[in-house]
Amino acid sequence: MAPSCWLFWAWWVSLMLAVGAAEEHAEGCSAMSCGNLTISHPFWLSDWQTGRSCGSPDFQITCLNNTPVLPSSIPFSVGFMIMDISYEEESLRVVDICKQKLLQASNSCQGTGWNTSDKLGIPFKIDPINLNLVMYNCTAAAMARRDGELDQTRMRCGNESQVFVRTEGSYDETRAIEGCDTPVVVPVLGGANGQAITRDYEQLIGGGFLLKWQRAPVSGSKWAFTKIMLIALTSAGATLLFTCIYFLIWHKKGKRQWFLKKTSTNNEKNYEAMIVSYGSLAPKRYMYSKVMKITSSRSDQLGRGGYGVVYKGRLHDGRLVAVKFLHDCKGNGDEFVNEVMSIGRTSHVNIVSLFGFCLEGSKRALIYEYMSNGSLDKYIYSGNPKEILGWERLYAIAIGIARGLEYLHHGCNARIVHFDIKPQNILLDKDFTPKIADFGLAKLCHANESKLSMTGPRGTIGFIAPEVHYRTFGVVSTKSDVYSYGMMLLEMVGGRKNVNSMAENSSKQYFPDWIYDHFAEDDGFQACDVTSEIEEMAKKMTFIGLWCIQILPIYRPTIAKVLEMFERSLDEMVMPPKQNFCELL
């Protein structure tokens, strides 16, 4: 085929494939139900299992416990519970979940400054039809002094009977707050002149307020089709440009594979230079053909994940190994080299051993010691009683993981922060000795560095420390691993106590709160047939876990302190305070 014909053919095929993909996905954003509401354009329900989206991110709705929730624009802040949607009027009736929970907890009108608008995304605004209520908790003398002075309505709020609500009109703010607490301002539904201000404050907040949305995008299927068509045309244009460059190189130098080979060779040389710089600390390197022989041509698969596939193998000396074949590495394979270099520096009974690696063009593999009992999540989330570990073994595993982390944080020449501690990354050998694995997200730093610099968040949702995602909470450090360890410890306690009902109960509230409510009090084990020694182990794991997940890192213990806490008796330990994101925002 002539070069000019081949160039046109490649461009045409790329364009047709991309357009075909766009047509295939143009059916997105179909109407779905959540509770008693139908969610349709411009809104769409997020699919947490696949991560797939079919509409504008600004109009994403999450269905939690069969209740539609409009997410907050502030990280780590609870959003708004949707009570009703009017597609004709383009309005929503919502309830501020965080404010409602704080009201229920304190049974008072008083609270910190609250700006509802800050939590709303760009397309939404508070409908002017709402009433902005200004509430004061005033003394009887102040009440008498203001009688007839303002358009006020008396309202009960919890145990406070001298609460006044001003619905509208100008007023002297300095005089208005004399003899009264700091006012609280909230939007609620109601007519003019306070017609609807006849209920309790709790009822008003529970009734919600109206939001309007603006500039709704094109319909879901058209929006998806438009987006994918743009991607299709961009891809086709890039393919055409790349083909032209390829054709010029082919025409001038006659080397059809030159460009691809050059790029691959340069990257491979960079990685090899990084590995060589570690000298004797670098693990053994294997040829790809040797790795295939070790795994008997990948005949015995152990597991599969987003990173690649793991196969069972055997070295020439008879040792069993687990070989992880990686997919094409993102970020030019930086995570692969990072894992080789991080774990290659370690030697500890609670850190998985890396026997070698393969780096041969795009083919990359890691050779680990074989862990016959798999990962920890298999046991703490299992509904099979035969796979549930006893408290003594769970307790020993918790201490072993802490020792492994203490080694990473303080026992190496370079301090290593793992950033992905979770049950799936804890492997168990034939004796159930825990070993920390998967160092793809780890970061090395000097031993005298107290905080780390990062270009972006890393970790697993549910185990990632708040400061890693949002730096307002504090600096990123080894205590970020302590938070992940604490969450894992609570998972171990919650999963072991009641495997069958844990998911049902914990899904109704924030999981650490569920642990706190069930185990912080003395009734945590009344329904379980356990000895006093077992109860002390479980409670100690709970106390330590709750200390480790303190939202602000300055209040968390170091991992060395955690090991000291395991050595103490339960009587010497103090229950940590219950955490609340709403109060810190």
UniProtKB/TrEMBL annotation:
Signal peptide: 1-22
Keyword Ion transport part of the UniProt annotation: no
Positions contributing to ATP binding: K324
GO cellular component, one term: membrane
Membrane-spanning residues: 228-249
CDD domains recorded: STKc_IRAK (cd14066)
Entry keywords, A to Z: ATP-binding, Glycoprotein, Kinase, Membrane, Nucleotide-binding, Serine/threonine-protein kinase, Signal, Transferase, Transmembrane, Transmembrane helix
Pfam families: GUB_WAK_bind, Pkinase
Localization, UniProt: Membrane
Residues in Protein kinase domain copies: 296-570
Membrane topology: Single-pass type I membrane protein
Annotated GO MF terms: ATP binding; polysaccharide binding; protein serine/threonine kinase activity
Protein name, UniProt field: Protein kinase domain-containing protein
Organism of derivation: Lolium multiflorum
